[in-house]
Structure formats: C-alpha cells, structure tokens
Amino acid sequence: MRKPKPPEKHPAAWQSPLWEHLDLIRSMRRARKGWKVIADHLKAAHGISVNYRTVIRFYARATNPKKGKLPLGFNHLGATKAAPHPDPTPDQRESAPPAKQTPEGLAAATEAARARIKARLQQQPEEPAWDLKYDPDKPLKP
User: Fold this and answer.
1) Residue extents of the structural domains in the chain
2) Of 39, 84, 88, 136, which alpha carbon lies 20 to 30 A from 59's?
3) How far apart are CA 116 and CA 118, in angstroms?
4) What DSSP string runs through 109-125?
5) Pairwise CA distance, residues 46 & 25, whole Å
6) Radius of gyration of the chain (CA)
7) Tens place of pLDDT for every residue, the chain, 142 residues?
C-alpha cells in the first residue's frame, strides 16, 4: 500500500488557512461532529480542501500547548476570542484601579486596600473558647 503524496504547495510555518477557522473547528468538535464532517464543511462552506487527518493534526497542534510548541512571540491560542468577563463582585468593583495613576490616586487606592484588608481581618470569627466539660483543677477519675 503506497502512501499518498503530500500536496506540492504547503503554507509557510504557522500560516495554515485553518487558523482562521479554529473557532469553527472547536465549536463543531464540541457539538460532537466527526473529523470527516468538519473537513467536508470546510470544503463546502469555505473552499478549504484538506484531508480530515490534516484537520486532526492541526487541531492537536493548535489546542495543546505542549504538543503545539508555538514559536516565540505567540501566545497559547487555546482560546482565540476573548471571553466576556463576568460582572465584578462588590469587592472587585471597589478594588478597581483608579482611572488616573497619579501619586495621590495611588496613595488613596493603597489606603482603601488597607482598609478593606483590615475590615476582613476584623470580620473573621474569633477562636471558640475551649469547652473541656471537666474542671482542669480536679483530677480525672480512673
């Protein structure tokens, strides 16, 4: 059995046309679509003719930082779109950095942070008193 010949034109390193469709591939995999279905969809919808094994290898490189060995200057591309941040909690709203980073603003932010820490430390429950249920001055009965 002969191995199929690789295509004559390869994209340069890290310039695969599949990078633009990583989110699509990821969402289809999360929807439990097979690799052949994904490859067929890429060909029909986007005009990218690749073998399903190419999609598998690309996805493995793109989503696994240890396997991917991204070149210097690249961040791990596990999540390509910024995830929306949840609403901050009241503590996070208070500790947001001031708009202007002036010395007065930094001093005020530092004092506010110290006050929050002090308030948290004061809110911690005190250690409960020991309830020995016996008089330590009297000897224990054998």
Assistant:
1) 17-68, 90-123
2) 84
3) 5
4) HHHHHHHHHHHHHHHSP
5) 12
6) 30
7) 677 666 667 777 677 888 889 899 999 999 999 999 999 999 999 998 999 999 998 888 888 767 656 666 666 554 445 444 445 555 555 555 545 567 777 888 889 989 988 888 877 666 667 776 777 788 877 6
This prediction has a pTM of 0.45
Look up tokens 């054998």; give the residue: 142
Report how far residue 21's alpha carbon sits from residue 12's, in angstroms, rounded to the nearest whole number.
Answer: 17
Residue 26 CA to residue 79 CA, distance in Å, equals: 10
Amino acid, single-letter form, for residue 16? S
* Type of residue found at 20: E
CB 16 within 8 A of CB 58: yes
The DSSP secondary-structure symbol of 2 reads P
Count of Cβ atoms closer than 10 Å to residue 76 Cβ: 11
In sequence order, which residues have a C-beta less than 8 Å from that of residue 68 and are 6 or more positions away? 60, 61, 62, 76, 77
Integer Cα distance of 18 and 56 in angstroms: 11
